[in-house]
Structure formats: structure tokens, C-alpha cells
Amino acid sequence: MGGQQLSGVNAIYYYADQIYLSAGVASSDVQYVTAGTGAVNVVMTIVTVFVVELWGRRLLLLLGFSTCFSACVVLTIALVLQVPTPPARRTSK
Question: SS3 for 41-71, per residue?
């Protein structure tokens, strides 16, 4: 529950109508797409309960932390090896 609060998923549901309208969904279909999003969330929550029971919390936490650590290492290496581009030169007319 706390993870959902911190992930920002509630903002998605709050602004879902505007998000789907700006994505090109017809205004008459927005309510159905929003309900579908909620249904997918419920189904995945049920699936998650079984996955946690099958694999265990410790393994899943270690996998998540390992993935985050690996992404941070890759990002750090990319930033260190980044080559700055010189600013564009202005031409006088």
C-alpha cells in the first residue's frame, strides 16, 4: 500500500481522464479505458500475491535492489564517459 502511494499511481487515476483524452482516446470511451486500467491493476495485484508467496519476499527484494543498483552503475558509467559537445558558434550577418 505504501509503495503505491509513493509511486504516484494515485495521480495516474486522478488525471486518467485528461491523460487518455490527450492520448487521443475518444471522450465517449474514456470512462471505459479508465475502468480497464483499474481492472488491470486489480488483476496484477492478485497475481502479485501469488508471486510473492511463490518466490518469497527476500528474493524479490534482492532482485529489485540488484536491478536498481545495476541501473545506477550503468548511469554513472554513462555520465563519466559522456563527451560534452561544444556550444554552437554564432554567425554574424
Answer: HHHHHHHHHHHHHHHCHHHHHHHHHHHHHHH
Tally of domains in the chain: 1
- Angle of helix 30-55 relative to helix 57-80, nearest 10 degrees, comes to 110
Whether 76 maps to a domain, the answer reads yes
* 20 in a structural domain: yes
Residue 1's alpha-carbon distances to 4, 5, 46, in angstroms, are 5, 7, 13
Domain that holds residue 20: 2-80
Examine residue 10 and state whether it is found in any structural domain, yes or no: yes
pLDDT in tens, 15-73: 999 999 999 999 999 999 999 999 998 999 899 999 999 999 999 999 999 999 999 99
- Beta-carbon contacts of residue 10 (< 8 Å; ≥ 6 apart): 4
Residue 93 lies in a domain: no
Cα–Cα distance for residue pair 62/58, rounded to 1 Å: 6
